[in-house]
Amino acid sequence: MLKAILATGNSDKIIEIAAILRDVELLPRPSHLGDVDEAGDTLEDNARLKAIAVVEATGTLTIADDTGLEVDFLGGLPGVRTSRFAGENATYDDNIKKILAELEGIEVPRRTARFRTVAIACFPNGTEILTQGVLHGSIALAASGYGGFGYDPVFIPDETPGRTLAELSFEDKNSISHRGLAFRALAQRLKDY
Questions:
Q1: Residue 35 among the catalytic residues
Q2: Are 120 and 61 within 8 A, CB to CB?
Q3: From CA 95, how far away is CA 84, in angstroms rounded?
Q4: How does pLDDT run across 8-48, given as a tens digit for each residue?
Q5: Integer Cα distance of 54 and 30 in angstroms
């Protein structure tokens, strides 16, 4: 079985990724490694920065990702700043409140958005495998549902009109989500590698 370090420390992401990458033995990021400054201009840049930092420190195949919520009315924001939209130490709830405030008074047809995840596997020899998953939808008028994490309570996928990601079962969410799409594609590419 292929072994890889998972660069993320986000426990919510780890659960989703582990459910998808069943043919890879995922090792935790070593605790002595600090957080990587996500200073990239794109999701690809940030995913690569995280993966390279871990692979250089450990000499082990590393898998990393970065996800952005792109809201059309906001010109693609929050984008690469998705997890920090409401500030550097923002909570999920802080970010949800900010996105809803930014879209206050904007009618539903103009609240289109997409989630984009970039997944990358970096090998010690410098080889990279990069995949992407995109989920189209819109931002709800109010938060709804108790599942998932992040912006899930306000994101309504086109595939499930009237239901946010937070209202879907774990399995249903993973079957259509941006992260699910990106990591299933990565899993296939790793098998072919």
A1: no
A2: no
A3: 7
A4: 988 899 999 999 999 999 999 988 887 777 888 999 999 99
A5: 8
**What is the pTM assigned to this prediction?**
0.93
Which of 35, 41, 66, 158 is the catalytic position? 66
Alpha helices (runs of H) in the chain, residue ranges in sequence order: 11-20, 43-58, 92-102, 170-176, 178-192
Q: Are 104 and 151 in contact (CB under 8 A)?
A: no
Alpha helices in 21-169 (DSSP H): 43-58, 92-102
| Confidence at residue 125, expressed as pLDDT on a 0 to 100 scale | 96
Residue 183: φ, ψ to 5°: -80, -25
Q: Which helix (H) or strand (E) holds 47?
A: helix 43-58
The token pair at 2 is 């292929």
CA-CA-CA-CA dihedral for 16, 89, 52, 173, to nearest 10: 20
Kindly state the tokens that stand for 56: 């250089």
Q: Residue 40 — φ and ψ, nearest 5°?
A: -70, 160
CA-wise closest residue to 66 among 36, 105, 103: 36
What domains can you pick out in the chain, each with its CATH number? 2-192 (3.90.950.10)
